Amino acid sequence: ALASVISTSDSEPPESAPALSGSHSGRKRAGWQPPAPASSAPNSSLELSSKLPIFTINPWDIMLCISGTIIACENAIVVAIIFYTPNLRTPMFVLIGSLATADLLAGVGLILNFVFQYVIQSETISLITVGFLVASFTASVSSLLAITVDRYLSLYNALTYYSEKTALCIHMMLIITWGVSLCLGLLPVLGWNCLEDYSSCSIVRPLTKSNVTLLSASFFVIFILMLHLYIKICKIVCRHAHQIALQQHFLTASHYVATKKGVSTLAIILGTFGASWLPFAIYCIVGDSRYPAVYTYATLLPATYNSMINPIIYAYRNQEIQRSMWVLFCGCFQSKVSFRSRSPSDV
């Protein structure tokens, strides 16, 4: 949750153009940004002097825009492949498609935020943009939880995984994921913002402190659930590998290699997710709008990297998607080469 306006002071709003503020370089919007005293000093190293040109661009905003461009391009390829490949209609690929769609929207939101921030000055557009980003990143994080649940079900109920009951469960998770994400994204637009009360702003303007606290708490719940499920997945993987080895009457070296590889992969998945989002989620709770904006930018930017890494972890490593990419971009794939259909439990 998520990229938006970064404020630096309760009483002295920055003259720079933090993300989603809808204003830039000394321009201030009437009604919610009180003028700073002429003698006051800026709190943030990112603040721009009023003597600088009015169209000076914040370098952190440029990095966020570049990040959004890469995210959009990566995930657009995944969405196109899944959409145009009839074979990729299993629950696993539906969830990967949901994740890619959410990350694609998040990337587009970062780009639009940059454009609207420096081209169109409007409080309405600012609220719509921040709501769009909140909904997109929430859907992305929630889709990761849905993928984790799917992987757990594929191991725990391996014999009945491909039943209609599983398909119904996956579709229900998608409905809940996008429904909740849409509701959270609409909250700032419907009035839960700090446009009328600047003192209630969080480090992410125009979201209020209570709003970002709710989003951060939701993230911690999702992170704990993912951690719990991945621990159970590790136990199941190790137990299955041990049982297979015992059926062969000896423990082979490949047993330990396969187990170690599976656990390492799960650790990378969870570690990447935590390293990307935990700093920003923690800072949303402990941070204050009076703190320097550089702290918010420094924790927000790595959070966007998670959407950049997701397609690599969940899509491009999959053999079916690799095959479809050959067909899509080269058209020279030889159909005689066979690929083994993989289940969500293949890590």
Automatic annotation (TrEMBL):
GO terms for molecular function: sphingosine-1-phosphate receptor activity. Residues 74-314 form the G-protein coupled receptors family 1 profile domain. Keywords: Cell membrane, G-protein coupled receptor, Glycoprotein, Lipoprotein, Membrane, Palmitate, Phosphoprotein, Receptor, Transducer, Transmembrane, Transmembrane helix. Residues 1-46 are annotated as: Disordered. The chain crosses the membrane at residues 60-85, 92-119, 125-147, 168-192, 212-231, 263-282, 294-316. Signal peptide: none annotated. Belongs to the G-protein coupled receptor 1 family. This is G protein-coupled receptor 6. It comes from Podarcis muralis. The lineage of its organism: Eukaryota, Metazoa, Chordata, Craniata, Vertebrata.
